[in-house]
Fold this sequence. Notes:
- This protein is of the alpha+beta class.
- It has four domains: 43-167, no CATH class; 181-291; 308-528 and 614-623, Vaccinia Virus protein VP39 (Rossmann fold, 3-Layer(aba) Sandwich); 632-824, Adenine-n6-DNA-methyltransferase TaqI, Chain A, domain 2 (Alpha-Beta Complex), CATH 3.90.220.20.
- The chain contains 27 helices and 31 strands.
- The strands form eight sheets. It has a nine-stranded mixed sheet, sandwiched between helices. Strands 3-4-5-6-7-8 form a six-stranded mixed sheet, sandwiched between helices. It has a four-stranded antiparallel sheet with strand order 21-30-27-28.
- β6 (127-131) and β7 form a beta hairpin.
- The model is unreliable at 19-25 (pLDDT under 50).
Amino acid sequence: xxxxxxxxxxxxxxxxxxxxxxxxxxxxxxxxxxxxxxxxxxxxxxxxxxxxxxxxxxxxxxxxxxxxxxxxxxxxxxxxxxxxxxxxxxxxxxxxxxxxxxxxxxxxxxxxxxxxxxxxxxxxxxxxxxxxxxxxxxxxxxxxxxxxxxxxxxxxxxxxxxxxxxxxxxxxxxxxxxxxxxxxxxxxxxxxxxxxxxxxxxxxxxxxxxxxxxxxxxxxxxxxxxxxxxxxxxxxxxxxxxxxxxxxxxxxxxxxxxxxxxxxxxxxxxxxxxxxxxxxxxxxxxxxxxxxxxxxxxxxxxxxxxxxxxxxxxxxxxxxxxxxxxxxxxxxxxxxxxxxxxxxxxxxxxxxxxxxxxxxxxxxxxxxxxxxxxxxxxxxxxxxxxxxxxxxxxxxxxxxxxxxxxxxxxxxxxxxxxxxxxxxxxxxxxxxxxxxxxxxxxxxxxxxxxxxxxxxxxxxxxxxxxxxxxxxxxxxxxxxxxxxxxxxxxxxxxxxxxxxxxxxxxxxxxxxxxxxxxxxxxxxxxxxxxxxxxxxxxxxxxxxxxxxxxxxxxxxxxxxxxxxxxxxxxxxxxxxxxxxxxxxxxxxxxxxxxxxxxxxxxxxxxxxxxxxxxxxxxxxxxxxxxxxxxxxxxxxxxxxxxxxxxxxxxxxxxxxxxxxxxxxxxxxxxxxxxxxxxxxxxxxxxxxxxxxxxxxxxxxxxxxxxxxxxxxxxxxxxxxxxxxxxxxxxxxxxxxxxxxxxxxxxxxxxxxxxxxxxxxxxxxxxxxxxxxxxxxxxxxxxxxxxxxxxxxxxxxxxxxxxxxxxxxxxxxxxxxxxxxxxxxxxxxxxxxxxxxxxxx
Length: 840
């Protein structure tokens, strides 16, 4: 919770609300009140008639106690009412409202606050509102058998200003989207509990209701018809007739959906009409099929887990990432979309939702496959709940059926199972793939990437998630993978995500999305490609806490006071970089080189969006596509360094190979681990020779410089001191051992200055390749590290005097030099260090 959230109220203006105010009002409760106010304003109620926190009646000794309500709308401006006594004020009330921050105490609040308040107000036409995060209701009065009673109805029936409340059958346009399907269905489950004690039977009944709801909305959306599901507590329908209505609708629904469901569903409701009547008050007013993707995903994960005992976390790709990727591929009218490893159909649902804007029959053009029966059942039910009545999802071994769908789809989307241990070993499958022929095994992720390209139409778009190792590892298998990609496609985008982004689906590595366009005809070799730009970015924030099971959302905050930043709807803004990436992409030359990226996109700008020319990849013998090496931060930094006189790290130093001559004795050695090095100072542990671990690879000599080779330790370095004369300092293999070349000693100040700077660390992190946590800068890549020459002689002199102290191990140099960076190299604009393995 923010320390000081800022809200905008249409009545009171900008609000500076602490997390908990003096009267106990919570931020979320104030937000609900604003939502209720906006609802009333949209209905035409005059803002000058509103009053916040109004006393309805005083009682007790000397009127010390009072009955209050959260919001009142008077028949006249509130300024004309303030001096009247409470009885006169009550006579002028047309609307009163009780607002709660959550649904926990709804039953009590309705019984002890809303209904009594309605009886206190004498005007028979006055209305009441109950409003929380799950439920919103309107209260009105009727006379039955000479007695005035207060009735409850969905907020949908609340009238416009000047009109009276009319209880009539709901049509499709009357329904409203809810932000809490989970809460709504929990309420329904609680309501059914007295009628059905067994939890599993309750959820089977809820599934039946859900099927009726999906069919009801689908049947009435286009024609804005009268809904079958009404709040039947408001209408005179017998229990027997009500069961008949729902049984008929359920039969119609199952005629469409039963074949897709994992279990047989009964065509009859095995519960009383009274139970059905009570749950319709929750189900009738909501618009299920237009729920937001995050709302539907949360609901489906909850509902399927309760209904089928499925743990769905492993199947889901985070919806924010899914929508981001699908938005880049930009589905349009006429597109056909397939995911050959569809899991829970998240990509297909996003493509379906986006494509519906252009094609009402988009459901007929969405296809999926998975070799898991569970995954297919999950996908089909998920697609159904998101409004797709077609569900072209098959239980199929996509790799085995590679050639069945060659060049069939205009968009291929896939987050395949990947990892060095997830491999395909069937020769009958490997022989079908260019990247599998002649091999005993191949990583499944590589085969799925080839499959997506081969099943795309010429000119089709492909978006496939791959581990960053596929893009930056120099081993032959990965080089061949990248070469094949470049021969068969044009690279449109390479965008990396932070580590753990896909942990929920079983992958905790850093991964990137490759967005490709299939060539009409493969090239003979990559070098025959025409020149074109492609887009590269490295995301740091995706809007939720990565690396833990909760995956709680992270919202933007005002850095000066920690306040949440809210949008115009008073909703917290996710701390994600997706929109900034799109702004950069759409203003880059890439959006012109690949017109489908910007088709029907309004957010266009002829700015300086980032791009990389493909020749930069093609002139590299390993065809590296690692986004860290191609991102704006790294390439602009190295260009800035080149504006100065500079040297390569390996122009100054030689890399000394691991190992040493002679034997390890039983003498004591000073062993230096990665954790023993703090920036440029070091400690050690005394170990006997036989105690040294196998990773003890370097024997140091005085003046040797050791630099961290692993991604997370590239800022660590130290110079071996004079105590190395005893030939007993041993260093772990997590470092590269450097020795200044003869004749290059005069550049030692430049080297030490660089090792103490972020511009060096940025280069090292950009050049690290390999598995997350173990990504390493190989010795050959050290030749790419650029060291600018210092032209400030006073600084060079001051550094020289520290070298002897470094040899004696008595100085900590980094803080001394970091303050000089901007003065010496003003053109090097180094932002703060990033924290994810996908960052530089």
